[in-house]
Specification:
The complex is a heterodimer.
Chain A: E1 3-12, H1 21-30, E2 43-47, H2 59-62, E3 66-68, E4 74-76, H3 81-86, H4 97-100, E5 104-106, H5 109-113, E6 125-127, H6 157-161, E7 176-180, H7 189-193, E8 199-202, E9 208-210, H8 220-224, E10 230-233, E11 238-241, H9 246-249, H10 256-259, E12 266-274, H11 278-282, H12 290-297, H13 304-312, H14 317-324, H15 327-334, E13 339-340, E14 351-354, H16 358-366, H17 374-383, H18 385-395, H19 400-421, H20 429-433, H21 438-450, H22 453-456, H23 467-474, H24 478-481, H25 502-513, H26 520-523
Parallel strand pairs in A: 1-14
Antiparallel strand pairs in A: 1-12, 2-7, 3-4, 5-6, 8-9, 10-11, 13-14
Chain B: H1 2-27, H2 43-68, H3 71-76, H4 81-112, H5 114-118, H6 122-147, H7 160-168, H8 174-178, H9 182-197, E1 221-222
Helix pairs in contact in B: 1-9, 2-4, 4-6, 6-9
Membrane topology (chain B): Multi-pass membrane protein
GO molecular function (chain B): electron transfer activity; heme binding; metal ion binding; nitrate reductase activity
Function (chain B): Does not seem to have nitrate reductase activity.
Chain lengths: 561, 242
């Protein structure tokens, strides 16, 4: 047994309203540089739909992930080492910018520069690739909210598998949102595809990162990742990917996408797993067995033997504690309501999903029946094969049994909790029907419905004795230092890296976890700008001046900055 | 003059090549990349890039044999001058034609495809000029010198190759080069010019040919407190604990 810790995420799809806040804040934090215009470390897809990049799930076309060889050995689907090196001069499976979209900006200057004229001037779209005028024909979310419409649905690779049953009559349509980040897989095929060995999995927390100084831009990771969550920065010539916001995670803060999620549908926590069993589990012959196989790789953090082995592996005691309190462990192994996205790619993904019950609830509600009645919901789950089979294509390689079980648990939770909320006697037969006790059902309800910040995000900070090393590490992130592409002497990528103060994160965390809007002791020291007459500077308007440097003489500021 | 052209200039270029690479690797690992433009355009690249690169691998292999293996060695194993010549010219011609054709496609692509052209730097253009000149002069030497024998039969294995080995051994003999035909002289000079430019162009990607991929394990694990943490060593005065 080789115990390793993995930072993992679960998203509750029933709560996702498709607002794209996660995508936008992620983009602001990580990919608002030149060369990364089309890159969305986090994106939200409407399902059924094409996804981003378009039809990325069609592995017959893109050849991402792993496949089982003739003798049951795990091979990269796009070919092994020799084939990779032979095709290195022109990657045969790289999506073109057209499969994503051509990023653009608008010619805003025209709005103010245009001479007086009869017609109002317009800001024409300009391509950020060529700099020329362009016609906008597609973007990262062009089919947003068009789930199940006939225009796009037939091109969804997952629907194609169950196509003969799908007629897409109006009353049969269904739709939900699927937010996606990098899966930080236990068996990452991007890392395996990288000829330079630049993509690595961190031993401490399992976060998969690209070493920007070792990446040579061979692009094999882009085609190797079946989720297409590695992107090629066309200005720097390097691969970039979701970092699981490691500078935040290291100080115990959730990722930006989780922090800003309006629906509070994301959970972050540790999973302990047995690294020796990963390869065997990923090589499971039956695709339907992959979900269970991956669950078997996870270790029980309460098992004394596991705790001892974790200690021997150098995992600190507070990390084991965090693994015991992990909401991820509860959702995956205790309540068994979270499922992996596309286990059939055999990468052992670590961002799991609670499938949405809402497509089923919607249909029941539309028939005028009681959509929270256990009987109606159970019957509907059995009757509405199309949403269930579609979800199974996404989460269990097409096996409807686990999806069925999860949906019934969610349905049971609704009816059971309704009795309690209505002040009626709770009906113990409802949890029993899905194999749970009343207490378990209530715990699950608590975790899914009312879990607070520190219950949703159980993130042990990296150890304080590494603090200054972490400060250095935080500056390694691909944004702070790089971004100017060729212009390393000037512009946003120039100069020495700005040290990222851990204190800032801790202040932020204190604010995020406090009960009031702002800590009262700080509040008294603040200045209300609405009452300020603009004369002088009242105490508290500016932070205290440090003795060695006055803030208004910051160096290297040009007149236009 | 010969001393300057075939002793001083080559050593200056070689020094720039070696020191330039060390400097670039030390200070610009982030810029060390192929700078691929495949994302912008794939149709022409699919044909041009493999043609060019495989052609160049053949060309480089041919140069290694032609320049580094003395004629006496091949004589000793019983390969006659004529046999060697036929093999070398055939191989060289095939590889050369591939490289030229590939290069033509790639330069056409770079000029005509908008996004690719706008991603082309000044250094790229200079590098392309030198690279194209070296390749064209080399093809000229093969076709005009060895096949059509314009300007008389010249056995480079007794001239240029011996000079090159003397150059590598730091015992340069410039007279051997001054006797060579103009095509060979120019080819060598422009090639050294390219070597001097090399570390400052995208050509550095040649030295990151990922042969280690064949032997390393698929999944790479790295520890956070590795010796080299991230991109920077700790600053002075910030020793790591434990």
């Amino acid at each position: 047994m080789r115990v390793m810790a993995q930072m993992a995420m679960v998203m509750n799809l029933d709560k996702c309203i498709g607002c794209h806040t996660c995508s936008v804040t992620c983009k602001q934090a990580w990919t608002n540089r030149s060369g990364t215009e089309y890159i969305w470390f986090n994106n939200v897809e409407t399902r059924p739909g094409l996804g981003y990049p378009r039809t990325y799930e069609d592995q017959e076309k893109w050849q991402g992930g792993w496949t089982l060889g003739k003798r049951g050995r795990l091979n990269l689907k796009a070919g092994g080492r020799f084939k990779k090196l032979l095709t290195i001069f022109s990657n045969p499976k790289l999506p073109s910018i057209g499969e994503y979209y051509e990023p653009w900006t608008y010619d805003y200057a025209t709005l103010t520069d245009a001479p007086a004229q009869e017609h109002t001037p317009v800001a024409r779209p300009k391509s950020l690739i060529t700099g020329k005028n362009m016609k906008i024909e597609w973007s990262a979310n062009w089919d947003d909210d068009l789930g199940g419409s006939t225009a796009n649905a037939h091109r969804d690779p997952m629907l194609a598998k169950i196509a003969e049953k799908v007629k897409f009559e109006f009353e049969q349509t269904f739709m939900f949102y699927l937010p996606r980040i990098c899966e930080h897989c236990l068996n990452p095929s991007c890392a395996a595809s990288c000829p330079s060995g630049a993509i690595y999995k961190r031993e401490e927390d399992g976060i998969v990162l690209v070493d920007q100084e070792r990446c040579r831009g061979w692009r094999m990771c882009v085609s190797g990742c079946p989720y297409k969550k590695i992107y090629f920065n066309h200005r720097t010539g390097k691969a970039e990917k979701c970092t699981f916001c490691f500078p935040r995670i290291e100080v115990g803060l959730p990722t930006v996408c989780s922090e800003t999620c309006v629906g509070r549908l994301r959970y972050i926590g540790l999973m302990l797993y047995d690294a020796d069993k990963v390869l065997e589990a990923a090589s499971t012959t039956d695709e339907h067995g992959l979900y269970e196989a991956q669950r078997d790789v996870f270790l029980d953090p309460f098992d004394p033997e596991v705790i001892r082995a974790a200690e021997q592996a150098g995992i600190a005691r507070d990390w084991v504690d965090a693994a015991q309190r992990s909401p991820i462990y509860a959702l995956i192994n205790t309540f068994k309501v979270a499922l992996p996205l596309h286990p059939e790619y055999r990468t052992m993904p670590m961002v799991w999903y609670i499938p949405p019950l809402s497509p089923v609830v919607e249909v029941v509600r539309e028939t005028g029946e009681d959509a929270e009645d256990k009987g109606n919901l159970f019957a509907a789950i059995d009757a509405l094969r199309i949403p269930v089979e579609y979800l199974a294509e996404l989460f269990t390689a097409g096996d409807v049994v686990p999806v069925d079980a999860v949906l019934k648990k969610l349905a049971a939770m609704r009816s059971y909790m309704r009795d309690i909320n209505m002040g009626r006697d709770p009906d113990g037969s409802i949890p029993a029907a899905v194999g749970m006790t009343e207490e378990e059902m209530y715990d699950m309800y608590r975790l899914l419905a009312i879990a607070k910040y520190d219950e949703r995000y159980v993130i042990p900070p990296a150890h304080a004795e590494q603090a200054h090393a972490l400060e250095e590490l935080a500056t390694e992130c691909s944004v702070s230092e790089y971004g100017g592409g060729q212009q390393d002497l000037f512009g946003e990528g120039s100069g020495a890296p700005t040290p990222l103060a851990v204190e800032n994160f801790q202040m932020l965390q204190a604010r995020q976890t406090s009960d009031s809007l702002a800590g009262p002791e700080n509040k008294s020291g603040r200045v209300n700008l609405l009452n300020w007459d603009g004369k002088g500077s009242p105490p508290g308007l500016f932070p205290d001046k440090s003795p060695d440097r006055s803030p208004d003489k910051s160096p290297d500021r040009g007149p236009d900055s | 003059m010969d001393e300057f052209l075939f002793v001083v200039v080559p050593y200056v270029c070689l020094t720039t090549f070696v020191v330039g690479h060390l400097w670039r690797y030390r200070y610009d690992k982030f810029g060390w990349t192929t700078r691929s433009s495949q994302l912008y355009e794939n149709r022409l690249l699919r044909i041009g890039s493999p043609l060019f690169h495989f052609g160049m691998l053949g060309v480089v292999g041919g140069h290694v044999i032609g320049l580094l293996v003395p004629q006496s060695w091949t004589d000793a194993v019983g390969v006659s001058h004529e046999t060697y010549h036929v093999v070398a010219v055939t191989g060289g011609l095939v590889a050369g034609v591939m490289a030229v054709a590939g290069m033509a496609i790639l330069i056409y692509r770079r000029r005509t495809v908008g996004p690719v052209f706008s991603a082309t730097t000044v250094m790229d253009k200079v590098m392309y000029a030198f690279l194209a000149a070296v390749i064209v002069l080399g093809m000229w030497n093969t076709v005009a010198g060895s096949i059509l024998t314009i300007g008389g039969d010249y056995n480079y294995r007794e001239g240029v190759s011996v000079w090159f080995r003397s150059f590598l051994a730091f015992q340069p003999d410039a007279s051997l080069m001054s006797e060579a035909p103009l095509g060979f002289q120019l080819h060598a000079l422009v090639a050294f010019g390219l070597f001097a430019l090399w570390p400052f162009t995208r050509l550095v990607h040649v030295f990151s040919a990922p042969l280690g991929y064949l032997t390393r394990p698929y999944i790479v694990y790295r520890s956070r407190d590795d010796d080299q943490l991230g991109s920077h060593r700790p600053r002075r005065g910030w020793d790591r604990v434990g």
